[in-house]
Amino acid sequence: MPQIHLDEETVERLDALRIDDEEYDEIVNELISIYEAEELTLFRGSDME
User: Fold this and answer.
1) Three-state SS for 25?
2) Contact between 21 and 30 (Cβ < 8 Å)
3) CB–CB of 27/14 below 8 Å?
4) InterPro entries this protein is in (predicted)?
5) How far is the C-alpha of 4 from the C-alpha of 24, rounded, in Å?
6) pLDDT digits (tens, 9 = 90+) for 14-43
7) All structural domains of the chain with their residue ranges
């Protein structure tokens, strides 16, 4: 698995999102899913014009 390095501010922001000691990879996967869903919504929305 690739390793990434996060600055302290990013870690603090992720910690603020954690629920019940949720793992960082779970949070990141959820954020990616949200981003992809929003991107898809924006893409489909532009097709309606």
Assistant:
1) helix
2) no
3) yes
4) DUF7557 (IPR055979)
5) 12
6) 999 898 989 988 998 998 899 888 887 766
7) 8-45
Q: Which token pair is 24? A: 């960082």
* Distance from C-alpha of 38 to C-alpha of 11, rounded to nearest angstrom: 23
- Would you state the structure tokens that stand for residue 10, as one six-digit string? 């990013």
**pLDDT of amino acid 4:** 83
Residue 40 is predicted with a pLDDT of 74
pLDDT at 49: 52
**Distance from the first to the final alpha carbon of the chain:** 42
| CB contact at 8 A, 14 and 24 | yes
Amino acid type, 24: Y
Residues 18 and 27 sit within 8 Å (Cβ to Cβ): yes
